[in-house]
Batch of 3 targets.
Target 1
Amino acid sequence: MPYTPELIEELNTLTRFDLATSQQGIKVHKTASAAVISATQRLHAKGLLTQADGGYLTGLGRDAAEHAQAVLAILSTESKTDAMV
């Protein structure tokens, strides 16, 4: 199953969380793009966020955010092949 635009926006939302602390959440304002608002609402419905407009990560949400941020870090790293070119 390939990533859909909706899943990509959910992953982007998860990467906005600071995993160094559990005391910091996010707040998605009504002026945010419709895609960001929808992604945040879907993450809440899936049990990953405490509030429909952001809030804090749940336990499952923290696990998902850790994985999303790890994948982003891996894919954002220059490969050894690219460095040789």
Target 2
Amino acid sequence: MNELLLILAVAMLVNPKGTRDASLDGKFTQAKSVEAPAFTSARPTVGFHDAARLRRGQRVFQQNCAVCHGRLAEGHPDWRKLGMDGKFPPPPLNGTGHDWHHPKAALVQVIKNGSPGGKGNMPAWQGKLSDQEIEGVIAWFQSLWPPEVRTVWARIDRESKRQ
């Protein structure tokens, strides 16, 4: 019961309006648009993942993902608005976007297969990045998430495995 209350409290904190993010309607998500949680550090938090994995993930992220998602995974400032090309710009992956609403399996699928439903310009990385590199990238951007977001995400991820 206490976990449920924590999830609801964090959800209201980061998304007080409870609005849907229409950019991600599809098989991977029931995501909601969110407001940025109050946190100021872009330094990775060791503990959620080991330091060696974080270093590898950061290296792969900087070489492949930062060009679109930003050096600190901050995403495009207007990531919720359709661009001139009719697609959504790259979202933040630092816990201030919708990334943490998705279980790990969904994050892996988006990285491997690209933007779901052609709603964004995310390319498919399958065959370009190994499973280990993809896992490292996810570990690195998750290390940027505030502790409250990581707690809620862990619950979402566990629940997804039960279904």
Target 3
Amino acid sequence: MHNSPSVLAQLMAVIEDRKRNPPPKSYTTSLLEGGVAKVGKKIREEADEVIEAAGESGEDGRQHLIYEAGDLLYHLLVMLAHRDVRLEEVEQELARRFGVSGLDEKGAREHNAK
């Protein structure tokens, strides 16, 4: 195992840099400038494409799912950067839930929302 940052962490660092130093003609910059509405629209589109690809059979369908999952993760990271949420914060939230059964965790969230 190496100590270099994960691909997601590296991508997040690039997105955060684009936010701080927005280059012209950058897709990431245009998304960030569009805010929650523009990024949210892309997340919805990409989520639909993930679901569609997941329903495709065979290795081609599997590869299409991987491709679309990459698009969805990228757009989610852009939204996190837009809201100044660090990837580490999401990782910490997932770590907090780790070891808690999904149904127990969901029940706790629903109970706390009331």
